[in-house]
Amino acid sequence: MATIYLVRHGQASFGTDDYDRLSELGVRQAERVGEYFRDHGIVLDGAYCGSLKRQRHTAERVLAAQPAEVALTEDARFDEVRNDEHLEHLLPIVLKDNEQLQAVVERGLKSSKDYQKVIDAVFNYWVSDACDVPAIQSWRDYSGGVREALKQVMVREGGGKTVAVFTSGGTIATIVAGVLGLDGSHAYKFYEPVFNCSVTQLFYSRERVSLSYFNDCSFLRVLGAQRDENLVSYR
């Protein structure tokens, strides 16, 4: 069976002028993934990432630890869910009937916990049948693009290969839900708990794909304990 490792990017710079940039912790997380792959004989035949800086920079740091150069292919279909777009167009709709969420928004969304509460509500509205907003990319188009991108990786790489896809939490959640045969209403359950630089493993053969494990960050805990540093983060 061929293998695909879905690697979430390292911690981004929440609350700064450039969110799409790895924080100092994010850089260390990415470097530790590279060490983990190297030290456990995970040799990549190919690598893919979305077009976001945090995805590409995570990939570059991981690939730097590989025994030989690995080509990195960019595919924007592996980008994160467009949360900023959703906040602009969907949040006003969601707030109409949700006083509790209105109070959260009025606090200013300065904490990652408050931000996540809003993303929860907006994401679940986005994937629902009630959402019909032409100004944004639909769940159907987004999830279809993600599935097609993954399929093309499998076809391009072929059998017996080991491949990494460096992407984001929403994209990983979308892939996992699809592999398990679940619709969009289940996707957020896999989105919220994804750790920075966690690894999800898929096996594939031709067009068949199955989930081996999801959201593993145990190696970050072990490497962090060895170096007396906390490498585990959600946001």
TrEMBL record:
* Transmembrane portions of the chain: none
Q: Which domain of life is it from?
A: Bacteria
Pfam annotation, one family: His_Phos_1
Please give the InterPro entries that the UniProt record associates with this protein. His_Pase_superF_clade-1, His_PPase_superfam, Mito_Ser/Thr_phosphatase
Could you tell me which SMART domains the record lists for this protein? PGAM (SM00855)
Alphabetically ordered keywords of this record: Hydrolase
Quote the protein name from its UniProt record. Phosphoglycerate mutase family protein
